[in-house]
Amino acid sequence: MSSDHPTARGWGREPGGVPLDFAIIGAQKSASTFMQRRLAGQPDITVLKDESRHFEDPYYGRGGMRELTGLLEPHRHTLTGVKRPDYLPKPAVPARVAEHVPRIKLIAVLREPVSRAVSAYFHLAAFGFVPVMDPSTAIGALLDGTLQQDYPKTQEILEYGRYAAHLRRWHESIPAKRFLVLLQEDVARDPAGSLTTVLRFLEAAETVVVEDGKSHNAGVYWPPRVRLRAARSRRYYDYDTSYGQISPKRLGPLAWGMVAGITAVDKLVLNRLGRDTRPSIDTAVEHRLREYYASDVRDLATLLDRDLAAWQVGRR
Questions:
Q1: Gap between the Cα atoms of 192 and 96, Å rounded
Q2: Considering its fold, how many domains does the chain have in total?
Q3: 217 band by pLDDT with thresholds 50, 70 and 90
Q4: What is the helix (H) or strand (E) element at residue 52, kind and residue range?
Q5: Is residue 124 scored above 90 in pLDDT?
Q6: In terms of domains, do 17 and 139 share one?
Q7: Is residue 82 part of a domain?
Q8: Confidence (pLDDT) at 166
Q9: Is 159:87 a contact under the CB 8 Å cutoff?
Q10: What's the whole-number mean pLDDT along residues 81-100?
Q11: Could you read off the pLDDT of 262-282 as tens digits, one per residue?
Q12: Average pLDDT of 289-305?
């Protein structure tokens, strides 16, 4: 077996352990889906299609490692990876990953936190976790600490953008040299070059990248579409309020028909109207949000040795 064969590389796997080589751990609403699909298109890489919740509660304690191993085992001849942008901010996950996959490589794509917070609000609204409202009102209520009281899941909107704090927690369990951190603006400006950087980090073959021109996991912002998607989510998912997570219901034919009908209206009618312009928020609310993230952005700039001044001023 050649030394560059995926299973011969010593950095990713423990003998008899979980056959996992890398994970895309963040950030939510920051081009992680784009990177997942680009990597999955490489000949010697397998990335699980569905997000991996196996290191999170309650899945970890319910045989998560056994299930993850079963999903990856058929692909152990390739480099194997998972994507779960919620891993970056979850406090319990780093130590678990270090225990089961100590030589794993980790990838994070980070987005300017103010625009990410606005996208995250609409993301949660489309899944029915929070009512659809003006984003300035929603973000202002979050900064005041009132929205979280009635809709606990929304605390993630602000918390998930504290990248430096989360990365430093991860570094307590896994050395910083095992991380590759990209910025979303770099990926948007040079997607092929960014993918090449990731492939080199993973020691994978650098194949020709074919751009398909598609938008991956694009945000939905037009209120009628967000409300329609929320209605579909309430019919399609069960909500676990203890862990703030959702799982598909077992639907009968009538319920499936309703979900399919809503999906058709969304994709074939509302989507084609082209009104999903990303909204801005009031200047005063934006200023408060930038102040909320200011110290973390400064810390992140130090951590990454990057100039992040553009993240602290003006609209993006």
A1: 32
A2: 2
A3: low
A4: none
A5: yes
A6: no
A7: yes
A8: 99
A9: no
A10: 97
A11: 999 999 999 989 888 888 899
A12: 98
pLDDT of 3 reads 42
Alpha carbons 4 and 205: distance in angstroms, whole number: 9
Range of the domain at 267: 135-157+217-285
> Residue 279: which of 316, 231, 228 has the closest Cα?
316
Q: Cβ contacts of residue 18 below 8 Å, gap of 6+?
A: 65, 68, 69, 72, 100, 101
What proportion of the chain, given as a percentage, has pLDDT over 70? 92
Handedness of CA 63, 64, 67, 72 (dihedral sign): negative
pLDDT exceeds cutoff 60 at 4: no
What pLDDT, on the 0 to 100 scale, is given for residue 264?
Answer: 96
CA angle 86, 88, 94 (to 5 degrees): 115
Q: What pLDDT score does 194 carry?
A: 94
CA 179 – CA 86 distance, rounded (Å):
16
Alpha helices in 42-145 (DSSP H): 64-72, 93-100, 113-126, 135-144
- Give Cβ neighbours of residue 129 (< 8 Å, ≥ 6 apart): 151, 153, 154, 239, 244
Which region, left, alpha or beta, applies to residue 16 given φ > 0 means left and ψ of -120 to 50 means alpha? left
Q: Assess whether 91 and 236 both reside in one domain.
A: no
Query: Does 181 share its domain with 74?
Result: yes
The maximal CA–CA distance of the chain, rounded, in angstroms, is: 61
**If you average pLDDT over residues 187-214, what whole number do you get?**
82
* Same domain, residue pair 181 and 227: no
**Spatial separation of the C-alpha atoms in residues 30 and 186, rounded to whole Å:** 11
**Gyration radius of the chain over CA positions:** 20
Entry pTM: 0.90
pLDDT at position 67 is 97
4 token code pair: 């560059």
Q: What is the CATH number of the domain that holds 12?
A: 3.40.50.300
